[in-house]
């Protein structure tokens, strides 16, 4: 299995954390909070699409809301496959970082 | 509520929505709007706007990329399905593409022809500001509209009106003269015109200076091909050309050959001033003759109506009794409207369009017929979530693909057929001309038009299938649209029948004109110009010629009967109705004329042979006798203010203008002093004509050694006159045959489909004892019925158009029932032949095979 990219990893984590409310705006908030950087929506949709093609997330239609100008909301939900992928990248991370003590970097 | 909620920039939102799919418009635009409101409340409106604009700038390329990726995936699938379908039904696909390609090739040919016609005269850079001075000529009760004008007008206009920038006169027609260098002699057509034509028209010089054309009377300009003919590779500037062995001209310029699509066309130019010494000194200063055309270049923004009045007054000033009223006519309209080419363009444009429609109908019919096979595909696509729009797009795409392939084939066909087309139209069309921007645009237009028209029915029809019914019961949908297909077949055959009738009528009319008796015998008539020293010794030449047994008789005339345009009015006779003022043609002949031409006398007597002239004694034709309408016409005097003639006989009517025109009144006089003879007509005995001709050549050479011997046969002149009608006929014939072929291709495919659909029925019928012929009749009957219905539509339409076409001809065939019946029979026969091939195949098939799986 191919490893996730960093953007994909962050977004997939966001979708996982946001649970029933994962779509463009909250994902963007999540990213801002955690990474302290500003991502454009397109930068979010692009990896989201890839995740969807890989079958890590599912997209489903929600009710329209007034603040969206009466437009439908599309929510994302992580799949079992997605969770496996997260677990895997975590394991890889841990394994890679294991041999690097934090002190040696500063 | 609405007022309080902040609105993102509208333009950006609209822009983004353009590039987004329906789903993305919900998701992405919704997110953006939500984000906008968040930014708006947490920061400022300005920051929110900037954010929104930034998001738009980012989302547009993203969604384009995304959409392309998706559509490419779908496109690959569509293409694969389309190609599989083509492969599976190779026969039908071939019929489909071949029919379309043929139709498109016709359209392309017609389009290139139309473009060439429309381009006439457009290369003249000043075309927009050029006008031809035409004239109304008022004859008492009626008015003629001519293309000429009085010769004195041009120079007068230029000198007296500031809005006239330039003017040039050009002689109507060209004179044939003998031109010679030291070692070369050719008879060539020479155009007399004012030197200003080189300023008005775009006739660039390759060598020499255009200013030199004004430096005298004895200057001459040659086209490149003429210069090469006389001087080869030498530089002709400053060299001498001798005209008619009498006068020398200095070559002052060589101009580029004038393109074929020009109404001004000549290879040799000499100044109009030359006419003062060739004809009469003041002929080009008169205010009455119409032998010249005058072109003027006008200042932009002049008032046409006021100017026309002004020039009419100018003519009246110089000739108070004039019946000539000049008016300006835009140069750009000369070819298309004055020469009447627009009608041809419309006719062929319509034919092209009709053929294209026939080809489209084939496509529609065959595709809908095959749709039974594809209904399951559509059903499945829809079940899997395809929108109707997507299915529409798929089928439009497929039809566009097929039309594109057909267009490529069509271009190939054009390449093959271009030589044939070139010889039919006498136009130097080249394959390279096809890549002219207008034609490429036209071809793309045809592809889009055809693709859309041919695809619209299948697309709408197929995408409208309800997946449930289609998937449950696929077999039933094949019969859907059967009525529609029949209607289309009827339209198709109506068009074909109209074209067949049109061809038949044109063919009949041309043949009628060709075979119509001219009133004289045009066969075995040889003629030669009376020129040089022949002018003074024709009596002796005639004597010498008559000694040859191959020559029956010889006559001298002032004109050739292919067109005698020397006429006048104001004839008076005893008891004339004052309202009658016919335009009478004059024709000068010698006493042997009637014998040579074999024109019969109706009443009275002819000229006495052997006399040099008959004084005031003249012959008239029956038409004129009918107009004079006197019991005792022989001996009646007819007079004009300055002359009086006595009628001694009436000849039977004969054609002295093209056969399409009504025979008018004519006076035949025998008096070379009035007008010198210009032609010598010889009636030859059939037999060894070539030997006789060489004898004539020797004899003429003997008397007139300075001129090369030239001769023509009169019947060849008449054939040449019909060349144009022949050309038109050839084109219409070609396109009609193609239209019928395309229709039949469609019918062939459709018949195959019907037969295939009824395989089981035919099998059962055969098992129960039906005969092959019985089944064939059953299958053919259907189409016969529709072809007959097509006749009902086609007949009135064809009658209407052909009736108005025939009105161009004074002597014309009548539009009888036989033409219509024969055309109907032909269509029926062709249709039956096409269908019966399929019917026979179906009827002969082994019923065991078709019923095996039941």
Describe the protein's architecture and organization:
The complex is a heterodimer of chains A (106) and B (854). By secondary structure, chain A is an alpha+beta fold. Chain A has one domain: Orthogonal Bundle (Arc Repressor Mutant, subunit A). In chain A, 55% of the residues lie in helices and 16% in strands. Chain A contains four helices and two strands; from the N terminus they run αααββα. In chain A, α1 crosses α2. The radius of gyration of chain A is 16 Å and the shape is globular. The mean pLDDT of chain A is 86. By secondary structure, chain B is of the alpha+beta class. Chain B has four domains: 10-68, no CATH class; 127-331, no CATH class; 341-513 and 723-851, no CATH class; 525-714, no CATH class. Chain B has 25 helices and 24 strands. In chain B, the strands form four sheets. In chain B, strands 15, 16, 17, 18, 19, 20, 21 and 22 form an eight-stranded mixed β-sheet that branches. In chain B, a hairpin with a 2-residue loop joins β1 (130-139) and β2 (142-146). Chain B is globular, with a radius of gyration of 37 Å. Chain B starts with 9 loop residues before the first helix and ends with a helix. The chains are: A alpha+beta (106), B alpha+beta (854). Chain A binds chain B through residues 23-25, 28, 40-43, 45-46, 49, 61, 64-69, 71-74, and chain B through 1, 5, 23, 25-35, 37-38, 54-55, 58-59, 61-62, 66.
């Amino acid at each position: 299995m191919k490893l996730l990219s960093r953007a994909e990893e962050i977004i997939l984590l966001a979708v996982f954390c946001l649970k029933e409310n994962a779509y463009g705006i909250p994902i963007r908030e999540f990213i801002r909070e955690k990474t302290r950087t500003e991502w454009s929506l397109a930068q979010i949709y692009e990896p989201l699409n890839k995740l969807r093609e890989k079958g890590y997330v599912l997209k489903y239609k929600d009710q329209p809301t007034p603040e969206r100008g009466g437009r439908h909301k599309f929510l994302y939900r992580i799949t079992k496959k997605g969770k496996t992928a997260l677990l895997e990248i975590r394991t890889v991370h841990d394994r890679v970082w294991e041999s690097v003590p934090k002190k040696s970097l500063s | 509520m609405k007022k309080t909620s902040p609105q993102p920039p509208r333009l950006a939102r609209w822009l983004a929505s353009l590039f987004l799919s329906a789903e993305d418009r919900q998701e992405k635009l919704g997110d953006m709007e939500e984000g906008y409101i968040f930014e708006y409340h947490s920061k400022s409106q300005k920051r929110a706007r900037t954010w929104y604009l930034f998001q738009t700038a980012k989302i547009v390329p993203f969604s384009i990329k995304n959409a392309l990726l998706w559509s490419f995936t779908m496109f690959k699938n569509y293409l694969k399905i389309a190609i599989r379908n083509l492969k599976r039904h190779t026969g039908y696909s071939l019929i489909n593409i071949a029919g379309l390609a043929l139709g498109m090739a016709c359209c392309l040919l017609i389009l290139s022809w139309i473009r060439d016609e429309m381009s006439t005269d457009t290369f003249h850079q000043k075309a927009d500001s050029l006008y031809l001075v035409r004239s109304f000529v008022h004859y008492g009760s009626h008015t003629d509209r001519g293309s000429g004008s009085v010769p004195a007008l041009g120079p007068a206009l230029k000198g007296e009106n500031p809005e006239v920038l330039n003017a040039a006169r050009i002689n109507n027609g060209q004179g044939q003269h003998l031109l010679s260098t030291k070692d070369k002699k050719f008879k060539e057509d020479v155009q007399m015109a004012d030197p200003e034509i080189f300023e008005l028209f775009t006739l660039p010089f390759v060598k020499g200076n255009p200013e030199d054309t004004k430096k005298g009377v004895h200057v001459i300009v040659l086209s490149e091909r003429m210069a090469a003919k006389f001087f080869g590779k030498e530089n002709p500037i400053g060299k001498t050309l001798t005209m008619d062995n009498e006068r020398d001209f200095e070559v002052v310029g060589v101009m580029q050959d004038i393109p074929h699509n020009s109404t001004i066309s000549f290879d040799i130019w000499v100044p109009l001033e030359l006419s003062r010494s060739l004809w009469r000194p003041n002929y080009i200063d008169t205010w009455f003759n119409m032998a010249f055309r005058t072109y003027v270049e006008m200042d932009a923004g002049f008032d046409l109506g006021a100017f026309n009045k002004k020039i009419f007054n100018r003519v009246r000033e110089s000739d108070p009794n004039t019946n000539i009223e000049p008016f300006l006519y835009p140069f750009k309209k000369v070819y298309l409207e004055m020469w009447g080419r627009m009608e041809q363009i419309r006719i062929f444009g319509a034919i092209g369009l009709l053929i294209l429609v026939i080809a489209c109908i084939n496509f529609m019919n065959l595709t809908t017929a095959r749709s039974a096979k594809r209904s399951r595909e559509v059903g499945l696509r829809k079940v899997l979530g395809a929108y109707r729009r997507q299915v529409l797009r798929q089928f439009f795409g497929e039809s566009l693909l097929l039309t594109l392939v057909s267009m490529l084939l069509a271009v190939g066909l054009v390449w093959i057929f271009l030589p044939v087309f070139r010889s039919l139209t006498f136009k130097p069309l080249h394959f390279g001309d096809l890549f002219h921007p207008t034609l490429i645009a036209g071809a793309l237009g045809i592809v889009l038009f055809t693709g859309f028209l041919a695809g619209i029915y299948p697309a709408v029809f197929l995408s409208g299938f309800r997946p449930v019914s289609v998937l449950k019961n696929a077999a039933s949908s094949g019969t859907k649209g059967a009525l529609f297909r029949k209607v289309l077949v009827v339209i198709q055959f109506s068009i074909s029948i109209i074209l067949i009738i049109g061809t038949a009528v044109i063919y009949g009319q041309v043949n009628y004109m060709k075979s119509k008796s001219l009133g004289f015998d045009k066969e075995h008539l040889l003629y030669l110009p009376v020129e040089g020293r022949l002018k003074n010794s024709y009596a002796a030449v005639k004597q010498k010629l008559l000694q040859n047994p191959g020559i029956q008789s010889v006559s001298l005339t002032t004109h050739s009967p292919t067109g005698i345009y020397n006429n006048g009015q104001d004839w008076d006779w005893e008891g004339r109705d004052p309202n009658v003022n016919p335009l009478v043609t004059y024709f000068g002949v010698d006493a042997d004329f009637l014998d040579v031409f074999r024109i019969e006398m109706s009443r009275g007597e002819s000229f006495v042979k052997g006399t040099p002239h008959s004084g005031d004694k003249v012959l008239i034709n029956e038409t004129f006798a009918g107009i004079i309408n006197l019991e005792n016409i022989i001996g009646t005097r007819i007079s004009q203010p300055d002359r009086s003639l006595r009628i001694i006989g009436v000849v039977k009517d004969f054609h002295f203008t093209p056969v399409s025109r009504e025979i008018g009144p004519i006076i035949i006089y025998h008096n070379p002093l009035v007008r010198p003879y210009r032609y010598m007509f010889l009636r030859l005995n059939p037999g060894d004509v070539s030997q006789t001709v060489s004898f004539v050549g020797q004899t003429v050479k003997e008397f007139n050694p300075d001129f090369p011997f030239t001769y023509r046969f009169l019947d060849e002149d008449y054939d040449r006159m019909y060349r144009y009608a022949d050309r038109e006929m050839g084109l219409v014939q070609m396109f009609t045959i193609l239209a019928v072929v395309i229709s039949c291709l469609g019918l062939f495919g459709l018949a195959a489909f019907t037969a295939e659909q009824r395989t089981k029925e035919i099998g059962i019928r055969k098992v129960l004892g039906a005969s092959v012929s019985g089944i064939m009749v059953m299958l053919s009957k259907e189409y016969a019925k529709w072809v007959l219905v097509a006749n009902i539509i086609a007949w009135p339409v064809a009658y209407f158009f052909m009736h108005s076409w025939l009105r161009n001809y004074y002597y014309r065939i009548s539009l009888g029932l036989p033409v219509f019946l024969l055309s109907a029979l032909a269509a029926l026969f062709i249709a039956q032949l096409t269908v019966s091939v399929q019917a026979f195949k179906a009827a002969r098939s082994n019923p065991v095979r078709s019923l095996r799986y039941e």
